[in-house]
Amino acid sequence: MKDIFDPKVTQELIERIHQLKPESPALWGKMTVDQMLAHCSVAYEMAFTNKHPKPNPLMRLLLKTFVKKGVVNEVPYKKNLRTAPAFLIKERKNFEEEKSRLIKYLEHTLNLGRDHFEGKESLSFGPMTANEWNNLFYKHLDHHLTQFGV
User: Fold this and answer.
1) Sequence-ordered list of residues with C-beta below 8 angstroms from that of 143, at least 6 positions apart, any chain
2) Lower CB density within 10 Å: C or N end of the chain?
3) What is the 3-state secondary structure (H, E, C) of 72-133?
């Protein structure tokens, strides 16, 4: 798994994002490219903002027990997996705004660095290692950039 805390990897991701166009078609799935960019920002919103509520204790236990491993391991996501409700983007978005917002989240993550994420609590999964955060961020973004052919 590539290291999102490596400036070269972050730059590679940003270059891939810059290859996207407002009319870029998905190779699978139902999202438009603008919705995908907004969807990818949700993981960062959950890490950096109070926009999303913390799941109740029972839901958190279920997420930690049954979902966490698949999110933070190094096994790539399969195509057309169902997504959590908080990640569903139903309306169209402004492509340039979403592109810029996602790039800012990537740069912010890089600037904070690996140490910031060691033991940082996830809304859904509780405290995680920096490596788990890396896998969550990188794997998800790589999956969706690949979905749009970049």
Assistant:
1) 76, 77
2) N
3) HCCCCCCCCCCCCHHHCCCCCCCHHHHHHHHHHHHHHHHHHCHHHHCCCEECCCEECCHHHH
Alpha carbons 122 and 31: distance in angstroms, whole number? 25
Residues 34-51: pLDDT tens digits?
A: 999 999 999 999 999 999
pLDDT tens sequence across 59-77: 999 999 999 999 999 999 9
pLDDT digit string, tens, across residues 77-103:
999 888 887 899 999 999 999 999 999
**CA neighbor of 96 nearest in space, from 38, 43, 140:** 38
Q: Which two tokens stand for residue 133?
A: 């955060």
CA angle (58 as vertex; 91, 40 as ends), nearest 5: 30
CB neighbour class for 115 (10 Å; exposed up to 12, middle 13-18, buried from 19)? exposed
d(CA 121, CA 103): 22
Model-wide pTM > 0.85: yes
CB atoms within 10 A of CB 112: 14
